[in-house]
Amino acid sequence: MNATSAEPEPSVPQPSLVRRVSRPLAALVAVGLPTLYVAAVDPNSPGHYPACPVLQATGWWCPGCGGLRCVHALTRGDLTTAGHDNLLVLLLAGLLGVLWLRWSWAALTGGRAPRFGIGLRGAVLLTLVLVLFMVVRNLPIGAGLAPPLV
């Protein structure tokens, strides 16, 4: 057929609303259930969660140390405590929340789902941020980034 013909292209059927929102809702459940557990079982009380193997082996706070306490504080709406427990987890939770809202809105309205990829440069940058965060929070100058001892 000639590319200049005026015949309309056949339209691609749009998936149903239930099908479009099923993936964002599944992701919400997959993150929400463990979050509810951390909300109910306080990580500030010893004996409920295993100790960090990096902290036990090296005595250094890893980038994830204090993450469960941060999530527990977030479930209580205490942003100050959450930021003190693990600022990186707090920032990541905010970023993931915004990305999930964009994804859900696209699913509800039938728009294109946002694409997210970090590539090699992003992976290297993320690794550097994690290493820098770990080093700084273990130095006297970054003591405010270290979670409190339990």
Written overview of the protein:
The protein is mostly helical and 150 residues long. It has a domain at 19-43 and 50-117. 59% of the residues lie in helices and 0% in strands. The protein is built from 6 helices and no strands. It has helices at residues 17-40, 53-58, 67-75, 79-85, 87-109, 119-137. α1 (17-40) packs across α3 (67-75). The longest helix has 24 residues, at 17-40. The radius of gyration is 21 Å and the shape is elongated. The N and C termini lie far apart (73 Å). The mean pLDDT is 89.
Features:
mainly alpha, 6 helices
The end-to-end distance, rounded to whole angstroms, is: 73 Å
- How many DSSP helices? 6
Outline type: elongated
The main β sheet shows up as: none
Look at the structure and give the mean pLDDT.
89
DSSP strand tally? 0
Structural class: mainly alpha
What percentage of residues falls in helices of 4 or more residues?
55-70%
Give the oligomeric state. single chain
Output the radius of gyration. Answer: 21 Å
Q: What percent of residues are in strands?
A: under 5%
- Runs in which pLDDT lies below 50 for 5 or more consecutive residues are none
Helix and strand run: HHHHHH
